[in-house]
Automatic annotation (TrEMBL):
Gene: ndk
Stored PANTHER family: NUCLEOSIDE DIPHOSPHATE KINASE
Protein name: Nucleoside diphosphate kinase
Gene Ontology molecular function: ATP binding; metal ion binding; nucleoside diphosphate kinase activity
Transmembrane segments: none
Length: 147
């Protein structure tokens, strides 16, 4: 594997990563960013943002109508979120693998959710991170958070 210093090669893709309010409140922002960087992805944009309902309605449009939608939006409004764009070959899949499965209690050890998360009062939404799930979602989500 080639290590590109100061830039990625032409096949690099980008993803939108969020450290959710639980991660920021627990002081895990730096740890989480460090784990993504340590895997070899490059940070290309970063900001701390208190999301608006408008941003979250756009970001979670695919989940409208699900039972967890409203609690999820309320949770995401409960404190600041760290929004980051990372770049690298297959970073979308690579970050989702690093993040672990959705439910933090049972996410595999070695993953961000598995190592750092658990259920707090059965609130599955408090799973520390978000990562785009496809190139189409990544493009849409980067434009929502970094317009
Ligand atoms: P992800 O891609 O692993 O983040 O999971 P999804 O796209 O399926 O869901 C989006 C987010 O909604 C998750 O990261 C959780 O924060 C939350 N969520 C998903 N499923 C549930 C659930 O069954 N209950 C609750 N409370 N939250 C959920
Ligand atoms: Mg998802």
């Amino acid at each position: 594997q080639e290590i590109a210093i100061g830039g990625e090669n032409v096949s690099a893709e980008r993803t939108l990563i969020l450290v959710k309010p639980d991660g920021v409140a627990r002081g895990l922002s730096g740890t989480i960013l460090a784990r993504v960087e340590a895997k070899g992805y490059s940070l290309v944009d970063l900001k701390l943002v208190h999301a608006t309902r408008e941003i979250l309605e756009a970001h979670y449009a695919g989940h409208v109508g699900k039972p967890f939608y409203e609690p999820l939006v309320e949770f995401m409004l409960s404190g600041p979120v760290l929004a980051a764009v990372f770049e690298g070959e297959r970073v979308i899949e690579g970050f989702r693998s690093l993040a672990g499965s959705t439910e933090p209690t049972t996410a595999a050890p070695g993953t961000i959710r598995g190592d750092l998360g658990r259920d707090w009062g059965l609130k599955v939404q408090q799973n520390l991170v978000h990562g785009s799930d496809s190139p189409e979602s990544a493009e849409k989500e980067i434009s929502i958070w970094f317009s």
